[in-house]
Amino acid sequence: MLITFRCRVYTNITMFGDVAQHLLKIMGHSGMVPGTILAKDVPAALERLKNGIKNERPDPPTNSPDTDDVSDKDTVSLAHRALPLIELLTAAAKEKCDVMWEAGDNMRSGS
User: Fold this and answer.
1) Residues 6+ apart with CB under 8 A from 34
2) pLDDT confidence bin for 56, thresholds 50/70/90
3) 4-20, pLDDT tens digit by residue?
4) What is the pTM of this model?
5) 3-class secondary structure per residue, the chain
6) Class of residue 56 by CB neighbours under 10 A (exposed 0-12, middle 13-18, buried 19+)
7) What residue ranges do the domains of the chain occupy?
8) Cα(57)–Cα(2) distance, rounded to whole angstroms?
9) pLDDT tens-digit map of 16-42
């Protein structure tokens, strides 16, 4: 599943569902899809996300047959995965607009 985040002042951000739901939980939300963060709550959600990312421990490397040739340097940290969402939330906080998300990448832009 893919989850797309949007707000009226930033481009849509699409993420893998498991990563997006984890980031939503770090922000203090249930991870339910679809959902909304009201403009007045965006700064607090952004702060929780930034603090949560700092405290997040990286996943231990797995040694399965599918990942034997993938080194630790090839894995993408949660902090890097969160950067586009942090930028979206920063723009939304600055312009005081709501942030919405839903499954899929076919959300209409704008509104």
Assistant:
1) 100, 101, 102, 103
2) confident
3) 999 999 999 999 999 99
4) 0.79
5) CEEEEEECCEEEEEEEHHHHHHHHHHCCCCCCCCEEECHHHHHHHHHHHHHHHHHCCCCCCCCCCCCCCCCHHHCCCHHHHHHHHHHHHHHHHHHCCCEEEEECCCCCCCC
6) middle
7) 2-55+77-103
8) 24
9) 999 999 999 999 999 899 999 999 999
Length of the chain: 111
Amino acid residing at 110: G
Token pair belonging to 103: 């499954």
